[in-house]
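Q: I have two molecules that I believe assemble together. Could you output structure tokens for the complex as a whole instead of separate predictions?
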Amino acid sequence: MKPAIEARGLTQRFGRQLVLLDIDLQVAAGERVALLGDNGAGKTTLLRLLATVARPAAGELRLLGLDAVRQRSALRSRLGWLAHEPGLYPALSARENLEFFCTLHGLPRGRAVECLEQLGLTDDALRPAAELSRGRRQRLALARTLLHDPELWLLDEPDSSLDAAGRDLLGRLVSGRTLVFATHDRGLADELDARVVELRAGRVLDRGALQVVR
Amino acid sequence: MTFAACALAVARKDLLTEWRSREVLPALAQFVLLALVVTLFAFDLDAASAARIAPGVLWLVVLFAGLVAFGRAFAAEKVQASLEALLLTPAGPVAIFAGKALAAAAVLLACEAVLVPGIGVFLGVGLPPLAVAAVLLSTAGMAALGCLFSALAVQTRARELLLPVLALPIWIPFVVYGAAALTGRAPQALANLLALDILVVVVAGLAARFVLDD
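A: Yes, here they are, computed for all two components at once.
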């Protein structure tokens, strides 16, 4: 079985600043990986490369067996990307936000209602996203990620603003899925039974049990 | 999901957001009326001079209202951090671009619906139907180019400055042919505007993929 993620020598620069250097990472299908590290360690940058929303300056990246740069269009609908900001439309209701993305994914609108229910947002369906609390908005963003049932989940601080019930829900949501997420919270990595990859100053540290060391 | 359905979904979402938030339209309508009032006080107008300056006032107001309408097209997605989620759908960057251009063109058309009768009321100059057709044709081409430059400018820090610098010189042919349509050479000017529209829509559509995706 091909790995879900195969990264070799991934490097990223912002101008002259090197933010990721020579990252190797392999993630098996069904595996959960937590990217840990201080602010500026390169977690979000690595996730953005994996989500194909940024291109690496150097290195090779294969996702779900496809080249992440050359076959990006074919890959994108198979990825579930949740950025650090929820990225919702504040004037639209929770249901309208999801229905809009259902249309773009070619899914029936009923899928929006299913996902709202799954994330415990049925009562908030008609409320504008702007009126939802930060935690409810995060749930709504997770519901959007769930809509098209992606094969590979890439989440940047998914527990951000979630209460205990929200964290439980997140655990149930990602159970059995291939997931890479960035977090500052080692407890979340344990809760989600995730392998920990620790980044420091754009490099992966050797953490013993890791498959990937450099 | 067809290209047209995705583009229409994006346009509908943008217009619904504008209808509910009323961020741009009331301000633009106010700008149109103020521009006409200022014209009234700034020039010593009689019937002959009003007829001479009316085309100039029309095109100046259309250009500056266009900068605001098209500048918001991608700026809002940037502020809401929702553009990445949009680009990760199977809709494709060109359909997203087309939807945003359609919505921005509709906003500018709404301004023109205030401007054209406003010129009649404030300056006492009625615009002939062929001149109105020239405004409509120019709006289509200006929307395609304006949204392309808006997508480009939104990725830079000085986006408010960059959009006018890029768009105004490229819009000049629309002003030249549009003004010609108001001064008695309407059929030829309209034919030129139509040809220009086709050219810029094709070029902007081809370029949109690279601007949004890279």
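A: One point stands out. Confidence is low (pLDDT under 50) at residues 207-214 of chain A.
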